[in-house]
Design goal:
- It is a single chain.
- By secondary structure, the protein is of the alpha/beta class.
- It has six helices and five strands.
- A five-stranded mixed β-sheet has the order 3-2-1-4-5.
- Helix 1 packs across helix 2.
- The N terminus is likely disordered.
């Protein structure tokens, strides 16, 4: 009855001209109806954010089971118990090419304290090998090839490259980043999961 009454109030005021010319009682009722819907919608939106499940991703081991540039699959024990910086990249991606020297430097400085940097190349083996030799990539580059974009999407990426994941010692994805890291930003993240030097 409340909704049909409200609808008839709205239609009668609309047919008589403007809502401004409606009686104060009618305007009050209309305002009350609009406010009720607005508050209800806001509560519904708030509740839906509370009840949505957290984003879930496949196990990181799916990424780390790819072959490297030499065709080798590394054993899972190589990555376990370490903080992992996993970077999706390609040789044709200019920001990726600019970011790789930073990752090589981070790996050199942090590997003894438990950091593993792993590149997931969305590229062909020969292109990755040539580029790695050219810039001195000192960490594993795993080859995802043309399937890499789909793989990246399953891990929350998909809008562009570079895309990076930071994985804690328990294997949980704790940070995701689309675009290039600033050195201070990634250093602070690594330190927060490994500890100060």
């Amino acid at each position: 009855m409340g909704i049909s009454l409200s609808a008839s109030l709205i239609s009668s005021s609309a047919s008589s001209g403007s809502l401004l010319s409606a009686s104060p009682t009618l305007r009050y009722r209309l305002l009350l109806i609009v406010a009720t819907f607005a508050i209800g919608g806001g509560i519904g939106l708030w509740w839906s954010t509370l009840t949505q499940p957290e984003e879930s991703f496949p196990p990181v081991s799916q990424l780390l089971s790819l072959k490297d540039v030499e065709g080798v699959v590394h054993p899972p024990s190589k990555w376990q118990g370490k903080v992992q910086l996993i970077n999706f990249w390609a040789t044709w991606c200019t920001p990726c090419r600019q970011e790789i020297p930073l990752f090589a430097s981070l790996y050199s400085r942090w590997q003894e304290r438990g950091l593993v940097v792993v590149g997931i190349a969305i590229d062909e083996v020969d292109a990755v090998r040539r580029f790695g030799d050219e810039v001195g990539i000192n960490y594993p580059s795993l080859i995802a090839g043309k399937d890499g974009l789909g793989l990246m999407a399953r891990f929350g990426g998909g809008q562009g490259l570079p895309y990076s994941l930071l994985v804690d010692r328990k294997g949980n994805i704790v940070e995701r980043k689309l675009g290039m890291f600033r050195e201070s930003e990634i250093e602070a993240l690594i330190e927060s999961y490994i500890g100060p030097g």
